[in-house]
């Protein structure tokens, strides 16, 4: 292992931003890219319109390259760090991909709207991060607007998500009365300038009692409140503990306003210092260390039709160890076949070139003629495989059938391929007599995508009939209990790998079954332990 290799790997910070739609993820991402020099942004205090413009310029270039990868991975250099931001589609694009992308991240930034607090989609994404035990950093956004009290938000984080928080900074005022944030570590005030928010004046102080704070803020009751709150935090709040942060049990929390670019750079600096470099991963032959020179990686996402003209597919590979070199030969472990990685793409916001070299922590895109499946391992030497990629509970279900029985073969091929890509989950009814295929998706838009792609790519028309379920639970238990369970339960299905799954219409139904069969274990994803 050379020193420069180790340095390269350690400089990688690969993370995802998790949030509920409208919390400001696009805005925050744009600001981060701007600091990384990955997009141009005219002026300093320009609003969203300009940011959008800059981003669309960039998308135009992506289009010219023939692919649009803006929604997948964004990569840039900042100081000595090599930052990879994994996008987690939120709005209509919300899908299982969103969950799976989190398996490629080494940490997550949880973005919360100060007025709305912890919202539904954040909870779902948080749970996946929790499952992996990755560190989670919190950015509480939109302090330029009136929102919930900081303590209330901290309590909400704990009550709803079960995570304790350590505020790295603390706001003085909010909304029209927003004055500053106080950086607890660096003991300094960052002043919010209402007329020119991204022009941040920083004032070094001796601590929260420093009279300079009174002079600067010039609002006795706000300063009094600030001092009381900081005292409460110091006395009764959690201590800063990097071990707890690293294990995802304590989240460092930052307050700011993404749109005004206030607090974003401070967040970025602290985040990059604390967030982990590429972490070791489990395989069936033990832990794989990112600093191991043997190249390895796993496919976490397959995106089809990035270029509609060519109908190509790209498999996204998270490099887990070693160095990737263009043209290298690897072992495609599931197929037991050698594979030459000839024309990979890296999702550089800056140089947008085919990648020649990439390191553990990076994401590369591989053109996929149908050779990849979600969860596939590629390795230079050896034949180990990374832990299986879990399936997550779909929330919408349809019975699916081909309209023209003569097209049965193409239909089977199509849904098989789309299942491998991870676009849909396919279930079969448990009772063989009336075998029916059921498609499950996380975001309802996927049904349209499915219909469209089957028609466009496989020339098949399908009939989709909505089913009333909202939850899938993978179940396990000993043989006797399972027999009793399967005898009495309706709505049993098998997943692609023949694992037993039960579908529920609502929470009440699910809880009733759980109460009735306490010995059966119900899992929200296919990681049955
Ligand atoms: P998303 O990707 O998480 O869905 O959120 P996005 O960044 O698109 O932001 C959602 C809305 O919240 C946008 O307003 C955006 O301008 C606003 N926003 C983001 N950060 C802040 C902030 O720090 N303070 C305030 N006050 N607003 C913020 P919009 O009206 O939907 O769009 P636009 O008309 O501003 O473009």
UniProtKB/TrEMBL annotation:
Molecular-function GO terms, alphabetical: GTP binding; GTPase activity; translation release factor activity, codon nonspecific; translation release factor activity, codon specific
Keywords tagged on the record: Cytoplasm, GTP-binding, Nucleotide-binding, Protein biosynthesis
Superkingdom in the source lineage: Bacteria
Domain spans labelled Tr-type G: 10-279
Predominant location category: cytoplasm
HAMAP family: Rel_fac_3
Role this protein plays: Increases the formation of ribosomal termination complexes and stimulates activities of RF-1 and RF-2. It binds guanine nucleotides and has strong preference for UGA stop codons. It may interact directly with the ribosome. The stimulation of RF-1 and RF-2 is significantly reduced by GTP and GDP, but not by GMP.
Protein name per its UniProtKB record: Peptide chain release factor 3
Annotated source species: Anaerobacillus isosaccharinicus
Encoding gene, per UniProt annotation: prfC
């Amino acid at each position: 292992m050379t020193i420069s290799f180790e340095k390269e790997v350690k400089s990688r910070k690969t993370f995802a931003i998790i949030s509920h739609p409208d919390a400001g993820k696009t805005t925050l991402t744009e600001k981060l890219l701007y600091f990384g020099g990955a997009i141009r942004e005219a002026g300093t205090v320009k609003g969203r319109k300009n940011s959008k413009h800059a981003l669309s310029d960039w998308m135009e270039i992506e289009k010219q390259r023939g692919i649009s990868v803006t929604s997948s991975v964004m990569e840039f250099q900042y100081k000595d760090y090599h930052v990879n931001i994994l996008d987690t589609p939120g709005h209509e694009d919300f899908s299982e991909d969103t969950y799976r992308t989190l398996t490629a991240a080494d940490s997550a930034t949880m973005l919360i709207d100060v007025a709305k607090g912890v919202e539904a989609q954040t909870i779902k994404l948080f749970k996946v991060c929790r499952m992996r035990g990755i560190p989670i950093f919190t950015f509480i956004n939109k302090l330029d607007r009136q929102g919930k009290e900081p303590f209330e938000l901290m309590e909400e984080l704990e009550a709803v998500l079960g995570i304790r928080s350590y505020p790295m900074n603390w706001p003085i005022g909010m909304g029209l009365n927003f004055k500053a944030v106080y950086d607890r570590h660096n003991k300094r005030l960052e002043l919010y300038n209402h007329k020119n928010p991204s022009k941040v004046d920083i004032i070094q102080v001796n601590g929260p009692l420093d009279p300079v704070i009174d002079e600067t803020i010039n609002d006795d009751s706000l300063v009094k409140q600030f001092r009381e709150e900081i005292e409460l935090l110091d006395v009764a709040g959690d201590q800063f503990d990097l071990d707890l942060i690293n294990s995802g049990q304590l989240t460092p929390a930052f307050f700011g306003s993404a749109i005004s670019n206030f607090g974003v750079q401070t967040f970025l600096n602290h985040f990059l210092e604390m967030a982990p470099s590429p972490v070791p991963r489990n395989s069936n032959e033990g832990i794989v260390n990112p600093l191991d020179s043997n190249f390895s990686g796993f496919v976490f996402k397959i995106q089809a039709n990035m270029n509609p003209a060519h109908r190509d597919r790209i498999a996204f590979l998270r490099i887990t160890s070693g160095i990737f070199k263009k043209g290298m030969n690897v072992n495609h472990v599931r197929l037991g076949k050698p594979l030459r990685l000839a024309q990979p793409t890296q999702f550089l916001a800056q140089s947008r070139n085919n990648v020649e070299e990439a390191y553990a922590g990076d994401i590369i895109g591989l053109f996929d003629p149908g050779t990849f499946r979600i969860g596939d391992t590629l390795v230079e030497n050896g034949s180990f495989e990374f832990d299986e990629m879990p399936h997550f509970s779909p929330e919408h279900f349809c019975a699916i059938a081909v309209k023209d029985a003569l097209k049965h073969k193409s239909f089977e091929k199509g849904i098989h391929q789309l299942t491998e890509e991870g676009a849909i989950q396919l279930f079969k009814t448990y009772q063989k007599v009336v075998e029916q295929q059921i498609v499950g998706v996380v975001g309802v838009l996927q049904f349209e995508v499915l219909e469209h792609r089957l028609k466009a790519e496989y020339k098949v028309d399908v009939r989709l009939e909505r089913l009333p379920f909202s939850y899938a639970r993978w179940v396990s238990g000993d043989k006797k209990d399972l027999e009793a369970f399967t005898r009495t339960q309706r709505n049993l299905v098998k997943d692609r790998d023949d694992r037993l799954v039960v579908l529920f219409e609502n929470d009440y139904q699910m809880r009733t079954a759980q109460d009735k069969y306490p010995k059966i274990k119900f899992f929200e994803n296919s990681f049955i332990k």
